[in-house]
Write a structure and sequence with these properties.
Fumarylacetoacetate hydrolase, domain 2, five-stranded antiparallel β-sheet, eight-stranded mixed β-sheet, SH3 type barrels, 26 strands, 2 domains, alpha+beta
Length: 441
């Protein structure tokens, strides 16, 4: 339920948080793991407020809070947030409330906490938690139909799509934080007019605009999570670019699905926007008339009323040697055919155990209009029609040196706008290696 932390009239003594276009007003308070840039400091938990990071390890050392809030704060002093995430929604909410009250205008804690602030421009981030497992779903029917039409014009959607939240297990080890730089992947590629595949660098490299869902509390092996319980397992959301090598994927994906085409890199934004912060931006979930309704185990009254998240997702391409961000699409997570709760429930219905810090990808989030396509594969109709960038260049697929930038935000009348920050990642030439891969200043 909404509480005092969502009050749109709240302002902070951190002046930058009160700017109308700030991603991180006091109503947001997302979590990340950071340290001072180019330092040997240990990584620790931080919370965004305006253009600053509140150093949670520094705050914890003061002993400012009491009870559950202080216990939760202590759990944020480590290099990963898993311990805090595993504490559950009461602990998440207690710390969020304590931080909100301490950062408000007029708070008695201002003189003490002011020394615990660090400018975001002066820090670097890492992946905010130890991700044990990564599952990528296929939750946008518009993406599924568009991609299916390229390869199966007469039958774009497979028979199970509208019944099952389809997903596959991805590679957690290659997930990096915003700023990730990776070499163009190599692999087997078979052209339609060849009798045998060849080996070489990917020529059809693509991005995927996705939402990342972080699991908070886990479940025991053999214990399924019902729709009524699923929301309690969602710690928060982030931006996710799940890169794809389309030509490698086309040759390898049958019979067992994605493999090398998807395991070379995935990039997450530094900040996790908590499920509590996102409460004002929940939206109705419904199916188009004539579509099958979810089976009973994937349905609940709460899911129908507020199962979706209204998050605008914008994607940009910055070409090598340019500082211009060329917008290529804008979509919204509310168009997802399957909700986060349904993903969690279906994931565990067979007894699969989720762990604190597990990451679920939403799959490419595309909307009903052509300009809402969340990948170049869709925007270019499989590479047939190039995308015209605002800087005068064209792209069918990504070239070496291209950076992809994704930004997200929530807006609703009567509430403060919340942002997700951004996720940025850059393609390097095949065979190159960057030892600083995985962090951004």
């Amino acid at each position: 339920m909404l509480n005092e932390t969502h009050d749109p009239s709240l302002t902070s003594w951190v002046a930058s948080a009160n700017q109308a276009d700030s991603d991180f007003p006091i109503q947001n308070l997302p979590f990340a793991v950071f340290r001072m840039a180019d330092s040997d400091e240990y990584f620790r938990g931080g919370v965004a407020i305006g253009d600053q990071v509140l150093d949670l390890a520094a705050v914890a050392s003061i002993g400012l809070f009491k009870g559950l809030a202080q216990d939760a704060l202590n759990a944020c002093t480590h290099e990963e947030l898993n311990e805090f995430m595993a504490m559950g929604k009461d602990a998440w909410s207690a710390l969020r409330l304590a931080l909100s009250r301490s950062l408000r205008n007029g708070a008695a804690e201002e003189p003490v906490l002011e020394s615990c602030l660090v400018a975001q421009a002066d820090v670097e981030f890492k992946v905010p938690c130890l991700i044990h497992d990564f599952t990528d779903f296929y939750a946008s029917v518009y993406h599924a139909e568009a991609v299916g039409a390229l390869f199966r014009p007469d039958n774009p959607l497979l028979p199970n799509y509208k019944w099952v939240p389809v997903g596959y297990h991805g590679r957690a080890s290659s997930i990096g934080v915003s700023g990730q730089m990776f070499p163009r992947p190599m692999g087997q590629i078979k052209s339609p007019d060849s009798d045998a595949p060849g080996f070489g660098p990917c020529e059809r490299l693509d991005y995927e605009v996705e939402v990342g869902v972080y699991v908070g509390v886990g479940n025991e092996l053999g214990q399924s999570i019902s729709m009524e319980e699923a929301e309690d397992y969602i710690f928060g959301l982030s931006l996710l670019n799940d890169w794809s090598a389309r030509d490698i994927q086309a040759w390898e994906y049958q019979p067992l699905g994605p493999f090398l085409a998807k395991s070379f890199a995935s990039t997450v934004s530094p900040w996790i926007i908590t499920s509590e912060a996102l409460l004002p931006f929940r939206a109705e979930f419904s199916r188009p008339e004539g579509d099958p309704q979810p089976l009973p185990y994937l349905a609940s009254e709460a899911n129908s009323v507020t199962g979706s998240f209204d998050v605008t997702l914008n994607c940009f391409v910055r070409t090598a040697g340019s500082d211009r961000d060329n917008q290529v699409s804008s979509s919204n997570f509310k168009h997802s055919y399957w909700t986060v709760a349904q993903m969690i429930t279906h994931h565990t219905v067979n007894g699969c155990n989720l762990q604190p810090g597990d990451l679920l990808g939403s799959g490419t989030q595309s909307g009903p209009e052509p300009q809402e396509a969340g990948s170049l594969l869709e925007l270019t109709q499989g590479g047939k029609v190039p995308v015209e960038l605002a800087n005068g260049e064209q792209r069918r697929f990504l070239e070496d040196g291209d950076s992809v930038i994704m930004r997200g935000y929530c807006e609703r009348e009567g509430f403060r706008r919340l942002g997700f920050g951004e996720v940025v990642s850059t393609v390097l030439p095949a065979g190159s290696f960057n030892k600083h891969n995985g962090s951004i200043h």
